[in-house]
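Researcher: Sequence recovery benchmark, item below. Answer with residues only.
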């Protein structure tokens, strides 16, 4: 070790947790018992400390993936399917408080955290907890939940609504940005949705999960691209296996 270089001593696990709490500003909400951390002046709720990304990490995803080519503004309508904890929604609320942002999350405990987060966002930001599709779905939970997969044998059953029912429920007549991150179910979802009312789509493919051994059902990129191009979208790649699709007449804001 060179003279003057810092000595790296592994911290015991409890000290690591304390350090992460302090670094990310994690606190416990006395009213609900949930943990939360600050994001651009809002509170994002979570279950485990490990689920809170560092500020640099969440800003990188916001700028280079989720809203790289299109930043919603004005009276835009965003539908976010697989919204997770609502981190990017909280960030967007600081920039575009007047938009409509309908966030869908079907994992029960994640939906609870998302709802608590959205309670502190502008009125146009709404959370919804049913699956969008033709039939109920099953969820197979994981320790950290945020990447749990939908499967026929999943023990956690979630009621469904169809896309037309969802649109009627929220009085949606157009979708300026449809954001999808559904852990391998993106093909079935895109085949179910009437894309004629959608101007732009940011969708996560999950080929990387197939490549790491989670199963071939996660190899979705080619089929997602075929669906989007067949529906008249121009498709551009984004980092981390995401795709951005836009109708030629829609236009980007970035």
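Model:
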């Amino acid at each position: 070790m060179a003279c003057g270089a810092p000595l790296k001593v592994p911290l015991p696990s409890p000290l690591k947790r304390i350090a992460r709490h302090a670094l990310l500003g994690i606190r416990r909400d006395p009213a609900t018992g949930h943990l939360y951390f600050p994001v651009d002046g809002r509170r994002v709720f979570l279950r485990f400390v490990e689920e809170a990304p560092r500020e640099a990490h969440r800003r990188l995803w916001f700028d280079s993936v989720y809203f790289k080519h299109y930043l919603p503004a004005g009276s835009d309508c965003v539908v976010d399917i697989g919204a997770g904890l609502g981190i990017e929604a909280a960030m967007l609320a600081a920039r575009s408080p007047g938009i409509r942002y309908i966030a869908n999350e079907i994992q029960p405990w994640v939906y609870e955290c998302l709802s608590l987060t959205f309670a502190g966002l502008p009125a146009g930001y709404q959370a919804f907890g049913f699956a969008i599709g033709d039939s109920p779905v099953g969820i197979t939970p994981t320790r950290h939940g945020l990447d749990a997969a939908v499967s026929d044998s999943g023990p956690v059953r979630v009621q469904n609504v169809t896309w037309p029912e969802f649109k009627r429920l929220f009085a949606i007549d157009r979708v300026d940005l449809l954001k999808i991150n559904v852990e391998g179910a993106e093909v079935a979802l895109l085949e179910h949705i009437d894309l004629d009312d959608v101007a732009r789509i940011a969708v996560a493919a999950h080929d990387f999960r197939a490549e790491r051994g989670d199963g071939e059902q996660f190899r979705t990129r080619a089929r997602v691209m075929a669906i989007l191009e067949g529906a008249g979208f121009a498709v551009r790649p984004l980092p981390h296996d995401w795709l951005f699709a836009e109708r030629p007449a829609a236009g980007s804001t970035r």
